[in-house]
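Example record

The entry below shows one chain as it appears in the dataset: sequence first, then structure tokens.
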Amino acid sequence: MTLLNLTVFPRPQARLMNDGTAGHRLLAWNVPPSELIHIPEHWLNYPEPEASMHFLLGLIYIAFFLMAILGNGLVLWIFSFAKSLRTPSNMFVVNLAFCDFMMMIKTPIFIYNSFQRGFALGFTGCQIFAFLGSLSGIGASTTNACIAYDRYTTIAKPFDGKLTRTKALVMLICVWMYTIPWAVLPLLEVWGKFAPEGYLTACTFDYLTNTFDNHMFVAVLFFFSYCFPMTFIIYYYSQIVSKVFSHEKALREQAKKMNVESLRSNQNQNSQSAEVRIAKAAITICFLFVASWTPYAVLALIGAFGDQSLLTPGVTMIPALTCKLVACIDPYVYAISHPKYRLELQKRLPWLAIKESAPSDTQSVATESTAPAAT
């Protein structure tokens, strides 16, 4: 009769490469057998990366974390408490900063896993990481679509009515009603699921399981969280560019007929300059969003419908880095391009040495109403 020794805890068996190379371990070599079932089999065939790669990624994520928490924290603070910035349009800016902030508060999980060289926090840590990532990523995409719509109505259709707080609040409620199901369904494994990827230090939607339900989930998620908001973003900003060019062309033609250099007064030029700077900031942020999330969307499609051998652990860590990078850059784009935000920073944090001239009352009113220059 064999007795079970309860004082001996089960330890994970080191998974070694079977190619005859001594000392080379496979990914998940230090994962307990009870946790291996949560890791897609695709990753279990790759060798463990060098420890320096884990440590390098951990250090990069520490820098991302500090940069994003500082930048987005300032945006949340300034835009929420500065009276001049508490406008309906800026409610979307605050929501985007909140999404970016949420994106980065999960990075300590990645950092810990990296310095432990693998799936250290297990299934629970993976679920928390992926859940926060899906909420923040999809929330940011739909918020960017709302910002594009707001800029379009403000610049291209200024006489159709200003955005009210009630309308902005309703739009934000719709954003989160749209976002939350895409994070809850895979969390509860009702449709899709979360799984580790790459070096097993990060987690996201499972795009590798070859089942019809999982393929359908990836396809639907790709359309509704990427293609759908991206269509609105591209449409509204293309309309803004078209309207601005048409308006400027009409002004030049009219000025030529009247034999004057310009039809704009200094006040209108200043107010238009402020609006253009805000629009440039919004366009830059949306461009960054497109540039950072497109690689991840392509990666998911390859995993679900393409050649999975292209998705090595190292390759899949690159889109993960770009997604985190945009959450770090967004607040600094506003710091550079948003005149009223810069002015508030100058008032509240003078040691930053930001030099932004305060607009006159007339100019402020003109900027808020964004009425086009009279022709």
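Notes for this example: The beta strands are 194-197, 202-205. The CA atoms of residues 1 and 138 lie 57 Å apart.
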